[in-house]
Amino acid sequence: MKKLNKLLAILLLAAIFVSSAASPVHAAQRVETASPIQQFFSSVFRNLGKSRQKASKDTELAIVLDAGHGGSDYGASANKLYEKALTLKIARYCKAELEKYNGVKVYLTRSDDTYIGLDQRIKDATGVGADAFISIHINSDASKTAYGAEVYYPNSNYKPQVSEEGRKLAGAIQKNLTSLGLYDRGIKTLNSASKTTYPDGSQTDYYAVIRGAKQSGYPGVIVEHAFISNLSDAQTYLSTDSALKKLGIADAKGIAACYGLKKKDEDLGELHKTNITKLSGKSSSRVRVEWEQVKGATGYEIYRSPLENGKYKRVGMVEKSTSTSYTDKKVECGNIYYYKVRPYKMAGDKKDTAGFSNAQKVKLLKTPAISVKAQDARIKISWQNVKGADKYEIYRSTLKKGNYQKIATVEETASFTDVNRKPGKTYYYKVRAVCNGIRSYTYSSYSKIKWQ
């Protein structure tokens, strides 16, 4: 049995060694050859793809930038340059440029010199709801004569719509790279040389990240920026931070052009950003947002996120220029939410949007649970403290379904004694928690009615 275990371990190590062997064509192949190990992960990606819900137009665009290689995987090296360091710098420059645009959230698969497996990169991208995966690489060739830029995108098998989106993305990025003077090697697909197939039986893509992204429902592209092995390419495009920044900006411009993103400071005529003027919980399950009216706006879009710097999803639209409030009823008590609002205007079928307002926070208070107890001629109303509450309002009525009057507001205590009552009469009580919102109070729902 020990001999069998040793043999299996040797076979596993051999499979891993084969999967990471260098290819003489270009750098990305050294880590993305379809191996038996990656074929196993291919099935994992298929399962991820089945459960992933594609981001809709009602959410911010999620772009994942993947700096190739890292850690113990140096990638290609030549002319005193290392691919893993160059790709990380380009990814950072690209992220910084993309974040100058509206309606996009940018993620990095790695932000430092760390090794991350190919399967984990796709898993992480899928986890944040990626709409596109851009893997950043530097090319290499044994002859040292090859030069220029090229971009790989998904083949047309299995999910042709992903291929078409990837083709447009690849073309937009390549156009901006070649505008820097890089030789145009074109955009291309590359099929797997093995017999691996997609669930429909068609031939898979060669590169693991392109396969994984397609199976998860979004396009993955590999951008080969220049040849590290070519002295001219290395000196002109890879040897200085300013040159690498130009590559990152070119990538960002291509992505923005493909998805129609607009810069935050782009002139939209009379259409400007708005400001949220009031934000509060109207009950434990309703939030009301109010904002400034913007001249020239046709309407407004309301976005929400559970995290201030998280992904914002559109939760509502106000299709009237003079309406400047919205009530969100799809929220849960006890949770914190952040809201943004942006104006838009229609010109025929074309829709232009201004930038988002600053994010504002609201916390929904849980409903107090109360008890009512008679103490001689007095009634004591008690409740458990509600997290986040600044004070509590106590209401009373002589009829269960009658009109309730506020009889007290208390702070720093979880009880109130009602001494202003007539003997022999039944009184009904309810309580709600209160805290400060944005220029308005936030209220919990009323407690269940208790009487004595």
Description:
The chain has 452 residues and is an alpha+beta fold. It has 3 domains: 51-259, 3-Layer(aba) Sandwich (Aminopeptidase), CATH 3.40.630.40; 276-363, Immunoglobulin-like (Sandwich); 370-451, Immunoglobulins (Immunoglobulin-like), CATH 2.60.40. Helices cover 26% and strands 30% of the residues. It has 9 helices and 24 strands. A hairpin with a 7-residue loop joins strand 19 and strand 20. It starts with a helix and ends with a strand. Residues 1-57 have low confidence and may be disordered.
Give average pLDDT, whole number.
87
| Computed Rg | 30 Å
What CATH first level of the largest domain would be assigned? Alpha Beta
How are the strands of the largest sheet arranged? Answer: 4-1-5-8-6-7
The protein's oligomeric status is single chain
| Anisotropy-based shape | elongated
**Strand portion, in percent?**
25-35%
First and last CA, distance: 77 Å
- Per DSSP, the total helix count is 9
**CATH topology title of the largest domain:** Aminopeptidase
Total tally of structural domains: 3
Under the CATH scheme, the architecture of the largest domain is 3-Layer(aba) Sandwich
